[in-house]
Amino acid sequence: MKNILVLSSSLRKGSNSEILAQEFAKGAADAGNKVEFVSLRGKKIAFCTGCLACQKKGRCVIKDDANEIAEKMKSADVIAFATPIYYYEMSGQLKTMLDRANSLYVSDYKFREIYLLATAADTDKKAMNIAKRGISGWIACFEGVKFKGGVCGTGAEAAGDVKRMPLLLKRVYTMGKKV
Question: Between 3.40.50.360, 1.10.1760.20, 2.60.120.650, 3.30.70.3280, what CATH number should domain 3-177 receive?
Answer without folding.
Answer: 3.40.50.360
